[in-house]
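Example (one chain per record):
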Amino acid sequence: MRIGPIISFLLATPLVSSAFAQTTQPTTQPLTQPSDPRSMPAGQLLDQMLKPQGAGAKPLQPLPDPPAPDRTTGAAAVAPGAEPMNVIREGSFIVDRTGRLTKSPDGQYEFVFDADGRNMKDPPVAILPNLKLMAMENAVNSSSRDLEFRITGMVTEYRGRNYVLLEKIMVVPDSTQTMGR
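Predicted structure:
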């Protein structure tokens, strides 16, 4: 068996194929060249991407999210004929708001805000279970009076209803409760 000619053939094969590939490339260029984005200056490329092309082209504008009504208002509200309330956007914070802990008919704990004296359109928010809620429950159960709380927490939203994850709670002392009324 003669290996010498086979090795020389294998070594010569890539040279022949690359030489053949170079000769098969088209030698003529098309009449119109599409603009290659890689060859444009960065500022020109950015302008081309951001500015609309043509007379009737306009950039799309985002639509605002319509606020969903809270389900605890309207027909389910205490006052007859109450108007629907908008939910608070998720991720917002309730900071140092006063109100009372109540239990809804379905057994969910809610925080009912005290009237703010301006628009009085704050629907109750359901409280997500955590240790702060447990401390509020214990304070209400061990007290002989109606407790008012000052809370801070992050608002979440689910199916048109607001929930609050409590971060800070404080029982408002009795002396300030009677002074504000």
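Caption: The chain has four helices and five strands.
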